[in-house]
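Incident log, structure service

09:12 report received: a user says their structure output differs between two submissions of the same chain.
09:20 pulled the input from the user's history:
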Amino acid sequence: MSSVSSLRYGLSLPTKGIYRILVCRPNHRLGNTLLLTPLIAELERSYKGAEIDVISEGDIAREVFSTHFSIKNVFCLPRRGFKHPVTFLRLLLKIRRTRYDLIIDPCIGSGFSRAVTRFLHGTYKLGFGNRAERSGLTHAIPSQVAMQHMAKRPVDLLRSALGQTAPGQDSYPPLDIRLTSIELAHGRQTVAGLLSSPRQHTSEPVVGIFANATGAKRYPMDWWREFIDTFKTLCPAANIIELIPMHANSMLGAEWPAYYSSAIRRMAAVMAGFDLLITADCGVMHLAVASRVPTVGLFCVTDPGVYEPYGPGNRAWKTQGLSAREAACRVVVDNRELLGLPAREAGGEDQLPLVEAVARN
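09:34 re-ran on a clean worker, output below:
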């Protein structure tokens, strides 16, 4: 009898006897891959000693998970697999030879992810499904149990299947690319080299700017220039470093020291050497969070509740209705201590009247 035909709806997943786990997330985007790292951490907590495989698309996942000790195989399906049917099917058949104790489809509404999950062999199959009898899963969890945030949904999925109570907002594992001490040291060295010589040994804050994003999420160059001009007026000691996008062209007119790498982990290591990273909503925003640098995400289109950088030191700002100057002032107010600016004294005159005035409006 197949695992799918022997349905176990309404029963919790076992906490013992799960040793081979497959996470099925066939997607090539950097952000979506990084948003999977909290689920990996939760699996490591729930099934200590288990071996985890991941199905992804393209090559990004190999870099992201290269230092995750619990992960053995990262199966990277070819992008647009229908254009490479032989390679695509050969890899799927290879994966199908392993019978997993648990296969997880962490997506809501992805027909492709569900089809791959159905095709593979697993004793237990877990995913979101509001109609259990047609889900192709042994454990179908209603989508309404999931948090709105994309990184938290898979964690909710697993916790619900294990019969655990709903956690608090602060109990979710963070995004984490797990940079090594060697990578972090190289990142700090690179950042120091980008600063002008007199500033290499000072405590002046280093602020990274990533000014690229897809489609309507991208702010124009003039917007960023006004933002940075205001930011520098309020924080003249701050060192600005631009992170260059994959297409290797500056989005800020090459006006600032800049760092470029097509290697995801090198980019993350350099970001980890910043004091603050400011970016629009994009995959690099999630990479910054996963590198543990305090991150400000600027949202002009998408819902911050779904993609915001969460965790200590991170913040999302909705910029609809704000000028670039106003957005910069609010970012400064939010991070004044990190930026080395004087705190407002209780009952005293604010030492940053421009900033506070804009932030109140």
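09:41 both user submissions now match this output. Likely a transient worker issue. Closing.
09:42 reviewer note: The longest strand covers residues 51-57. The first helix runs from residue 30 to 34.
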